[in-house]
Design a protein that fits this description.
about 180 residues; mainly alpha
Length: about 180
């Protein structure tokens, strides 16, 4: 009987160790890129407020000398890091690592959008000489946009939502071929 079951089962059932280690390394790199990108995006967006005209001392006064162009550059760099965060989130979607679906995660996405929208609004108000109170008109819609992006990425979707699974290898094969 044992001899019959031995013939039914193939000699090699799972992926080789190298394939598993490569997938693990890719997942670790994507997680690191995701975390770093989000942190740098938020720092760049926050630096916009330091560049806008007003009073300041030390580093803030130096950043304010850069004025609106420097604030625009920080906002653009922050947007680029946020794009890297979104790409890493999409790549991690196929790993089976479930995103947080809590109110705290939803609040974090909304706050990030609100902060970026407020920075953009302040930059526009400073550039066009509008009252700073108008910057909040950009912050609200940007917060809603970020919630929408989070839901589209599956980062904020309900647990019962169906997601298409793509492995990290399929994504690389599509990019290379």
């Amino acid at each position: 009987m044992e001899q019959a079951t031995e013939r039914l089962l193939p000699d090699h059932l799972g992926p080789e160790r190298e394939v598993a280690m490569e997938a693990f390394a890719r997942t670790q790199r994507a997680l690191r890129a995701r975390g770093r990108s989000l942190g740098l995006a938020l720092v760049c967006v926050a630096l916009v407020f330091a560049c806008l005209p007003d009073h300041g001392r030390g580093l803030v006064s130096g950043l304010r000398q850069g004025g609106i162009p420097l604030a625009g550059a920080f906002l653009a760099v922050g947007g680029w890091f946020f794009w890297r965060f979104v790409q890493a989130s999409r790549q991690l979607g196929g790993t089976g690592l479930a995103p947080q679906r809590s109110n705290a995660a939803r609040g974090a996405w909304a706050f990030g959008g609100w902060l970026a929208g407020l920075a953009l609004g302040e930059l526009l108000c400073a550039a066009f000489g509008w009252p700073a109170s108008r910057s909040i008109l950009v912050a609200g819609p940007m917060s809603g946009l970020m919630l929408w992006v989070g839901e589209k990425l599956g980062e904020l979707a309900e647990p019962a939502a169906v997601r298409t699974i793509h492995t990290l290898f399929e994504r690389d094969d599509q990019d290379n071929g």
